[in-house]
Amino acid sequence: MTTVRGPAVSRKLAINNLRERRPLEPAVVDRFLARHEAPIVEGARCTFLYRGEADEVRLVHRIFGLPERIPLRRLRGADLWYVVVELPEGSRIEYQLEVAHGEQRERINDPLNRRLAHSPLGSSSVCYARGYEVPEWTQPDPVSRPGSLVDLVVPSRALRRDCQVTLYLPARFRRTARYPLLIVHDGGDYLEYASASTVLDNLIHRLDVAETIVAFVSPGDRLVEYANSAAHARYLTAELMPRLEEEFPLVGTPSARCLMGASFGAVAALSTAYRYPGAYGSLLLQSGSFVFTDIGNDHGGGPAFEPVVRFVNRYRAAPCRVADRVFVCCGVYEPLIIRNRSMVPTFEAAGMAVRYVEARDGHSWENWRDRLREGLSWIFPGPQKFFYE
Amino acid sequence: MRVTLLGPQRRPTLDTVAASLRLAGPVATITAGWQEREPDDGALSERLGSRDVNLSLYGRWLDVQDRNPDFAAAERRLRGVLEEVQEIYLLRLDHALQAVYAVQRRSGHDRLRADALAEAVAAVRELDAAHLHRISDVRGEFYQAWRPHDRPVIAEHRAAVARLLSDAAALVIAGGHVGVLAHTLHLFDVVPPPRSPVIAWSAGAMALTDRIVLFHDRSPQGFGHPEVFGKGLSVLRGVVPLPHARARLLLDDAPRMAVFARRFAPARCVLLENGTRVDTDGDGTCPPGTRVLAGDGRVTALEAA
């Protein structure tokens, strides 16, 4: 478990102590950097640092509510740059540094910070504010028996392509048992960037989550297939699901089926359930790109969002029950937070049981990873309540 | 029937308890709640002086699965139906208990509130009773339709279990998965010998009761409502055993615990923590010193009558 703890009480920041040092020799800066892990977390205040010659250095992030590019100040007489940002307890933020030399600007990960987060778009540096802990159940645990991953190819007439599916079978998988089915959009990314397989191993081993068969599906043209596509919904519901229920020991009832996705994947999950109401008992929607307009057409999402906006607007105008239970989560530092908050009463108005969770995090795979325990244990609770050793 | 309930056996007390009962003869043990680990009973055997005979109920159940696939498939369907019944019950229970807690929190006229609270709790008790009834009906229909006693493989195992029990000086039931344990106890028609004591802890203690109550306030998805799961062997009446109470329940939340106690009254909610020993005659009478949830939600020790 990684925990960042700083003093709760206000005291002089390390960077301010350094600023008072005269003369500020390079060796002093060397010692300062050797003594402190960057960013320096002191209570609610985080000091971001960069060392090197530059004309300008900025902290670049996607925290909704803060200026997008925050300039670092150069420490007088030294090649050290810094900025202090207040981060509420429990925050986790991903960022980069933009270093300018003349007209040339380069965006880099923080060379002083060893923590990185990865995504399909590359990597970025991560700051753990005071109180954030990497959940230990996201890390490999030798005690947890691993499930197995099986690759399938499902020919789809709906999508007119062969679809890759990675199937997770829980440890101790038995043909004589019956399992619920979880279908995960952007499955490859969940496996790679959200440690989905490790998380499932741990949560199932700890009895937090029921033994579940998980189908990790991957998109072709994501922005098309996941933006309220009839073909995608048909593929999942009329092709993939029946095949899995024929070949694997699945419970095969709506209450034992869940669609899950993040961002556009959440739109795909919701729109699929919308097209096939009653087929899926649960939805697990993480940071859904539920962009809508209340008036006018300026949604700010670009052309890819047009079908999404049309779908979400239609759904919000006439909310209907598409599943029994919906788990919704979103990072409060995402611009999508307002959209997701707005969807909660909409889902509730449709008569669905909603569990809504916010986190001090952004639109990132580690945020979605960290919410899996709450989400999955609510959707498919493990047998913990039956065990009294 | 003498029943001795123990706290969890991570810090074992079974050996001293068994010695105090001066058992003469073999001791039948049930570790079906451990499921695949059922045969790993070496430590248990040691504590019983190696005179134990494991009834191997889980192994017998697996054998039935293998040798009678039709029955196994029917059991799976039964499990599916029971799960759905439980889900619907939980849905209703959630609303009924939310009403109880809302009335409990409400400010205003004390007397009115107390009356409304009593009615709200009564509604939950009715729901619990109806649910227990429904589960019994579903199980009864299953047993009627599939007549396990007429199936040779089950009849064979039942006879073997009855033989082992008839020779036993005591029956010891360990914890584990209370659902699996209760199911195998019913399937193999386990009837504790009337003159031999029964010693049980954790899920084993719960499976002896006439109403198994599941509880877990500290699950990852937030606290769950205590829920009626089904009938146990009914050799222990008027008691709701609460193994690992401190670890599993928000005992400091007195209003919540008060609802728990009132909901299951007059049954006593008995805390089974490490080192606990409760000797009872199976009628719900507990000795002085037994720690129970009182009507006000606080943990209290019973005083001598």
| Strand elements of chain B, count | 13
So what's the CATH class of the largest domain in chain A? Alpha Beta
Overall pLDDT of chain A: 95
Share of residues in helices of chain B: 40-55%
What percentage of amino acids of chain B are in beta strands?
A: 15-25%
Helix and strand content put the structural class of chain B at: alpha/beta
Report on this model:
The complex is a heterodimer of chains A (389) and B (305). Chain A has 389 residues and is α+β, with helices and mostly antiparallel strands. Chain A has two domains: 133 residues, Immunoglobulin-like; 250 residues, Rossmann fold, CATH 3.40.50. Chain A contains eleven helices and 21 strands. Chain A has an eight-stranded mixed sheet with strand order 13-14-16-15-17-18-19-20, sandwiched between helices. In chain A, strands 4, 5, 8, 9, 10 and 11 form a six-stranded antiparallel sheet that branches. In chain A, α6 packs across α7. Chain A starts with a strand and ends with a strand. With 305 residues, chain B is an alpha/beta fold. Chain B has one domain. Chain B has ten helices and 13 strands. In chain B, the strands form four sheets. In chain B, strands 3-2-4-6-1-11 form a six-stranded mixed sheet. In chain B, strands 7-8 form a two-stranded antiparallel ribbon. A two-stranded parallel sheet of chain B has the order 9-10. In chain B, a hairpin with a 5-residue loop joins β12 and β13. In chain B, α3 crosses α4. Chains A and B meet through α11 and β21 of A and α4, β5 and α7 of B.
How would the blueprint of this fold be written?
The complex is a heterodimer of chains A (389) and B (305).
Chain A: E1 2-3, H1 14-19, H2 26-35, E2 40-42, E3 45-51, E4 56-61, E5 69-71, E6 73-74, E7 80-86, E8 92-101, E9 104-108, E10 116-119, E11 122-128, E12 133-134, E13 148-156, E14 161-169, E15 181-184, H3 187-193, H4 196-205, E16 213-217, H5 222-225, H6 230-247, E17 257-262, H7 264-275, E18 282-286, H8 306-317, E19 325-331, H9 337-349, E20 353-359, H10 365-370, H11 372-379, E21 387-388
Parallel strand pairs in A: 15-16, 15-17, 17-18, 18-19, 19-20
Antiparallel strand pairs in A: 1-12, 2-3, 3-7, 4-5, 4-8, 6-7, 8-9, 8-11, 10-11, 13-14, 14-16
Chain B: E1 3-6, H1 14-20, E2 27-30, H2 42-47, E3 52-54, H3 57-67, H4 69-105, H5 110-146, H6 152-166, E4 170-173, E5 176-177, H7 178-187, E6 198-201, H8 203-207, E7 212-214, E8 227-230, E9 239-243, H9 245-248, H10 254-264, E10 268-272, E11 277-280, E12 291-293, E13 299-301
Parallel strand pairs in B: 1-6, 2-3, 2-4, 4-6, 9-10
Antiparallel strand pairs in B: 1-11, 7-8, 12-13
